Amino acid sequence: MGGGLILGVALPEGRAYSASAPVTTSMPNAWVRIGSDDSITILSARSEMGQGVYTALPTLVAEELEVDLTKIEVETAPAGEAYINSLIGGQLTGGSTSVVEGYDKLRIAGAQARTMLVAAAALKWGVDTSACRAQNGWVHGPGGEKASYGKLADAASKLPLPKDVKLKEHKDSRYVGKPVNRLDSAAKIDGTAEFGIDVKLPGMLYASLAQCPVIGGKVASLDAGRARSMPGVKHVVQISDGVAVVADTWWRANVARDALEIKWDEGAGKMLDTAGIASALKAAAAKPGALIKKQGDVDAGMQGAAKTVQAEYELPFLAHAAMEPMNFTADVRKDSCLVYGPTQFQQLAAGVATQLTGLKPEQVTVRTTFLGGGFGRRIDVDFVTQAVEISKAIGGGPVKLVWTREDDMTHDFCRPLSYHQLSGALDAQGRPLVLKFHLTSPSVTSRLFPPVVKDGFDPFMAEAGAVPYDIPNQLADVVIHDTGLRVGYWRSVAHALNSFAYESFMDEMALAAGKDPYEFRRALLDKHPRLRRVLELAAEKAGWGKPLPAGRARGIALMEGYGTAMAQVAEVSVTGNTIRVHRVAVAADPGRMVNPNIVRQQLEGSIIYGLSAVLYGEITLKDGRVQQSNFHDYQVVRMPESPAIEMHIVESDEKPAGIGEPGTALIGPAVANAVFAATGKRLRRLPLRLA
Amino acid sequence: MISLHINGKARSVDAESDTPLLWVIRDNLGMIGTKFGCGAALCGACTVHVDGTPVRSCSTPLSYAAGKKVTTIEAVGTTPAGQRVQAAWAALDVPQCGYCQAGQIMSATALLAQKPNPSDSDIDEAMAGNICRCGTYPRIRAAIHMAAGRKGE
Fold it and tell me: What domains are there in chain A, each with its CATH number?
């Protein structure tokens, strides 16, 4: 590898070429690699899990670099300092931050690289840089000279990083803001895209892992005699989380796993059951909370009330149920360790591999494949730890661990369940005077990022923890309660919990006030024109207030999440106890869009992901065991239940906001409010069940 | 050794006859496009064609496929319906994470081969066995209509 690696990041070797002349590659910075054959590779530091970063992030670099986006190669970045997500403080994909965080940084990186290429050309030709211009992978000089990026890259990469670079005006964009098709689609349509489950290394073995049916339990005794004698089995090894069978194919490993005779020490977790957890959660709600928002004086406000409203809402544990079951490949050697697979958190994957092997950080390499869904599950690295332990235990060498769907469903880090107590007061004209909100729920952050939680306050639990409505007296607080079951981040995190409670309650307040739910909200948004606009837009496009076919009813909900203002109107019918969502009109203002095609994908997909949780999703425990095991008892939305989704996106020059998650949160209250309109029954618990 | 006719080629495989076809395709034959999702014929990620009929390869034993013609995502584009489906998928940019898409394409291709002009309810019925957690269903529906040569209803 030629050229200067300015940021000192360890990078994988370039592609192999069949050309006779050896190809060298140069890196003007951590994001761009240019081959002497004019190949351009742009690195994406975020994991592609469906949300489109493999396209959107390189688009930002390519725009300023002045290269043809359709001709570049994209590579997922290794673990490295340069690739840390500054909004999170780790190399982590999550929180709908990828575009928000990369928007300036990656355009600057592209502009820096372009500036260096232009400077190299100007030096070569002995002209001023201002007389040269970059276009489509070439630098053109004042006298008709031209040189390709590939010919300039080596010299360019030795130049100092330019400090101030000029970014394009938005109106001059070639790609940013345009609905470009995804760069990963072709490989995902012809079956060649590499997911974690597809990793293949020379000499690789396959592992299936028996884990204790009670999360956290350990092996008490093992008889592996029968398993060891089965076809293809090479090793049976005990690791922290259970017993792994390693064989020459995964199926043989998995069949032999069923022949293991294991006695488990189930530990304290065996006492857990859903009813006990729910009652302990409610008891914990009596504790004082950490403050989310305080405004005015709620007690004084209550004094002047003409009417008061109270309600409680509950949400269950949920599995992520990504389509690709958890898996990872590890290859531990004497002086190196490769961990290779689908992760949202390269830094933590590298960290656990370093810790488990005792190797130096520079001896550990993380390679990221495409993720067959992430949804927050792949922020955790339990399966990376397991793969490394297995490779180590068999004496080293590549081994691919693949979980079954049942493993995946029963050993998730569930979305926290939650209990919300709300109360409010209205004056004689039906205007809200008071809104009180008290959330009790487990904290994911306490486990994953403990220093972030201070004085009982987890900022990720406070998401959508206050409403934007103009209500003079507000008090919102949160109690962290550990139920004994580990929990994880789940697409839209606390937004989904809190907006279900708040936006259901706003409808209950509107009812008590004798007002239309849309008009009731709209009157409280004078200070929030962006939110009022999306509310009006969704209502208008959905035909709010206009007659519907018999049996249909609408519900509306509004939220600001990840910087995006969003409103949804759901149209439902109820037959017997079956809720059918026919249509969702969504209005969103996500700020400036890098790729409107991907924004639309995310908006649509996030609503459908959320709808599965609204209609079906619930993980329950009995004797410490997760009772759901596969898609027959953990149902998700399928094609026939998938509603028509009409998207209305507000054009905006505001800074980009997150779009992968808010839709997931908001579909819950929109549907619950529609079910109330259809049936007069207020469902305060998810999933929505009429019987 | 068991003989298999897959994507126009004869292959022989050293695997137990009750091994699911999925794992033979993936681990023994090294074709990775067909995916493992549930192992219980509940999600459709592993869909392949056996003699033109869509089957869930995770729950189909190798012995069942022996002597029959198996087509996977790697070769579905050589059939007229498969070619149209893949072209429509590309035009409408259907995939998100992409993991389920091979199975979706195999189911959609089998539908179009049987019903060149499917209605929305035909699509509901034929595609109900294929889960997509990213929620690409609206684009899948539109792409099937496009491949059939008509606009969405």
Answer: 25-178 (3.30.365.10), 199-267+326-402 (3.30.365.10), 285-318+413-679 (3.30.365.10)
